[in-house]
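@channel anyone free to eyeball this complex?
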Amino acid sequence: MFSKNSSEIFKWAFLSIAALFLVLSVAAAFLGAERAESFFTSPVMVVLWAVFILASALGAALLKSSGAHPGVIVMHVGLYLVLSGAVVGSERARFLSDRFREAGGIHSGYMLLRKGEPESLVMDDDVITPAGELPFSLRLEEFRVEYYEPEDENWRLWVEVYEICEREGRQRLRFLLNPDWEKNKEFSVPGTGIIIKAVEYIQRARPVYERAPELWFVCGSSESFSIPAEAGSEIELESPRARVRINDILENSAATSPGGSRMEIEVERGGAAAGIFHIAPGYDYAGIVEGLKLRYVVPGPSGAKRDGDSERPAMRIAYIRGGESEEKWLIPPSNRPYALNVSEHQAGDEAGEGLIRLNTYLVEPERRARSYKSKVAVEENGEEVKRKVIRVNEPLYYGGYHFYQDSYDTESGLFTVLYVRSSAGLKIVYAGFIVLCAGAFLWGRAGFIKQNKGAGRRARRGA
Amino acid sequence: MEFKFYFPEGIIYVAMAMYFSAFVLFVANRKKTGRLLFALGFACALIVFAWRWLEVSRLPMRGMFEVFLVTGALVYPVHLACRSLPGVDSEKLDAALGFMLFFPAGFVFTAEAGKLPPALRHWVFGPHVSFYLLGYVFMFKAGFAAALQFFSPTGGRAAAAREETTCRLARAGFPLLTAGLVLGSYWGKKAWGDYWNWDPKEMWGLAIALSYVVYFYFRSATGNRFHRANSALAMFACAVILCTLLLTNLSRLFPGLHSYAH
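replying in thread with the prediction:
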């Protein structure tokens, strides 16, 4: 039906289209995804795509009649299917398809799901403008992020090196060191003669205290006395007359105090009704009991011990200078991802030559998300019709749409964002992929393992 | 320059030395010893691959060190597959190619292992990358053959034979690249919601495929009469692969979903 000539003409035409798309693809790579997408879906390109699709279909027919290898024909059929499927599922096509509209008529968008609240609204790319409404709704039941276990990762050391000018009372940041530390490996702080060495590192550690926390009552400049800071501790004061009772120690409260705890005390002043107060460590409270300052003293840890249940490490670090060594512990409190030690050292060989302040941080390595997932239920006409845990790489499929885990509320985990995509044309595209690959393998294998005889015939065919 | 003076990554230098020695021996026509060293080089690369897999608890095919390690290693099985086929056997070129592929892994890129972010933790990751790397080996071999043909002064039968070799190797590589592209597309659908995201790496992947389509169509349309032009197209297609491999993974020119740089 088709002459040899038309087959040749077609080859040059297809070659030109392929070359054109090649140039455009490379150009698009420089534009970035957004601009590439707008370009390739612009009206001009729509015409070119139509030509490409037509050429694929035509190619299959023409090449068949010109005696090309079956694999070549199959590849062109595959290409035709892929491109057609892409057109069917494209944004422009959604206006044309009734079935598409019945399913909600949404090409793609985002859904913000709040825990427990059913949602059927799909938003545009900006997550603000509505793109459409689904004929069913999704309800987020639970959301979880899984992190890679940090237990095998050593915490990192950061050292801020300040030069203190005593005369001017100022400090100047000289360096920021981030040594790749190893146990007993020495690092010198440039220009200071100070050497830092991690002497001990306990992967899972618990702080050890020489002294227990206490509640101190400070009376002017004279006597001060204390009671142990534990629930139930009580004291009766003579002058002023008061009774103070520690009700509770609240651990890991939202307070940013060093000890990470707050104390609840009940104070009865001279027969009056008792008042409840909350005090944080490290501050002087003057107004609670007249004439007395209350101070909740939480001594820092004197060291650390191994504790299998702990999720935090501890490091004993040595600062060595001129043969003398000073050791400090870096023990991160449970409410902070780092431990800080501030130390001052004499720099240089002569006294008064300069003071160096080192802020040594033991910092938690950044937790990397291993996976995040949303437990979602689909409701249609008031009934639950499907449940799924949506993970990255594992979307929910319902009603002609795929729902993907896109992102989430990193701060409090109260909402999750799903990406919605219509599945129109997808089956055609997938079929095209399989056909395209099958054709490519058939043809490729034949060409690679070719026998020497018959080479003349194949040389004429070319393809 | 990044040196790996630790185990197991340091073994790549042994693999490089083996491949290089094999090349020298092939040039000196000492085939038997050359083949032994070639095989040993592959075994060394395999050791690095397997040990690293255990160490990082994931398939070691991410990041430039691992990519070049695996591609260099794959040269050997491809060499074996080609050995029994007349016309595509090229020991010297294969050993040289393998050494050239190990070189960036040995000296240029850091072997620091990154953890896989959620999107990369999918079973398609292995096959997708594998098909591409295997395809690249065939295409680099084709490129070598094309360069030999293009730059050699002799014409006639020798040139035609070399050109034929280029085409056969490219035909072997093409379905592998197609499979890689299709799997990547399928994975894109699963991970990001669309089988095509117009990402620079995807556009370059498409450019690679189209380069070879242009090569095959040109060869066919011209009745295979212009050998040097064919070879030029094959070399151009190789250059497109190099751009994809190096630029998109490293360059800030092409920010996108695929960047492994940062």
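from a first look: The radius of gyration of chain A is 36 Å.
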